[in-house]
Amino acid sequence: MTDLLAPLAAIVGAANLLTTPHDIAPFITDYRGRYHGSPLAVALPASSDEVAALVRFCAAHRIAIVPQGGNTSTCGAATPDGSGRQLVIALRRLNRIRAVDAANQTITVEAGCTLAAVQAAAASAGLLFPLSLASEGSCQIGGNLSTNAGGLAVLRFGTMRELTLGLEVVLPDGQLLDALTALRKDTSGLDVKQLFIGAEGQLGLITAATLKLFPQPTAHATALLGVASADEAIATLNALQAAFGDRLTSFEMMSEVCQQLVAKYQPGALPFQAPWALLVELSDSGDNTSLQERLLQWLAARGLGDGVLAQNDSERTRLWQLREQMSELQKRDGPSIKHDIGVPTSAIPAFLDACGTALQAAFPGVRIVAFGHAGDGNLHYNISHTRPGNAGLFADEDAVNAIVYEQVHRLRGTLAAEHGVGQLKGHWLQRYKDPAALAVMRAVKQALDPQRIMNPGKWL
């Protein structure tokens, strides 16, 4: 297929079509190192027109396309296969902030902008783009959209689906779909942009988006609390919502095992250890002092035992680092079988109890590292030490997944809350997703991509 490289290079420029092993190396392995590929080439377009030209060429020659953003996928969604016949279209050069409309509280950005760049552009206009992830310095908006990313502030602001007003998308035949509206209300037919949010690049290639912005909070109250059980954690969440409404921006929980990892690798960083640690943040207009005083009074009235209230921005940052470093600390401690599950918030205690009991029965001594966005029911539920010394962990992966996903399904939850499905969970999706929903998805795929060139080998 080397005869195809010259016309591809003519579209993006020879310097922006990567073919050597050294140049393509950063694009062919997923973030966790589980999936590796060997593409035809990696194209780096700098405009939507160049993306459309690449897709038209690929459609004419039946070349499969793998869209890629910051390559932070944990499910292999942006990794090519080993056939040497797939073109990776990486969007890092498609990185302009096209417009900030402060009066309309919107921002229009290209898909290759990092999340941090979008946050900064919003902040420079005195506004907030509220999506917040540990990988925000490297993940890109196109990838955030393709997985319907959630993060730390979903409780108040919602996922990318709720934060998106319009999209620009290159369809599988190379047409440019201009649905880049900044409207908040529009009943003129189907909202077609929703097809592409969460589709992991299988229906089209997102090139730009118009996103919602919000007033920048001027006050924060952040506390780390210790509670005795998951039931008490959810009761605390409900009580906070009743007392503070949508000022409650984040509600994170970390198990005792998580806290032990912090103590192991960062001695003294934790002010206490408890069966569950809760990271709670309120945000509002006004000043920090009054908001912090309100939270302090509420905590005193509740009679919660362990607790630390951040007194300044430096302390607030240190508390958030305890939560945001969890994935890295666990990686440092060794491999694990990862789950990004979601259940109704009220069902979190039942899930933790039933799933923990079933896993301990199947794998005595198993270690469960559970943490995440309890305010929206999304837990990162990671398993290690199914055997002594953590030997043979991934030989047990299917058995572990079967236990976890069965409990999730029983509680009408999801096996992919914010990280996507990719190559990792496709067969589990076929098992647990409603058959009628799968049929609708396949029908949409067939209608938009009959040649099946968009990100093949993933869950559709």
TrEMBL record:
Keywords: FAD, Flavoprotein. The keyword Acetylation does not apply. InterPro entries: FAD-bd_oxidored_4_C, FAD-bd_PCMH, FAD-bd_PCMH-like_sf, FAD-bd_PCMH_sub1, FAD-bd_PCMH_sub2, FAD-linked_Oxase-like_C, FAD-oxidored/transferase_4, Oxid_FAD_bind_N. Residues 35-216 form the FAD-binding PCMH-type domain. It comes from the Bacteria. SUPFAM superfamilies: FAD-binding/transporter-associated domain-like, FAD-linked oxidases, C-terminal domain. Belongs to the FAD-binding oxidoreductase/transferase type 4 family. This is FAD-binding oxidoreductase.
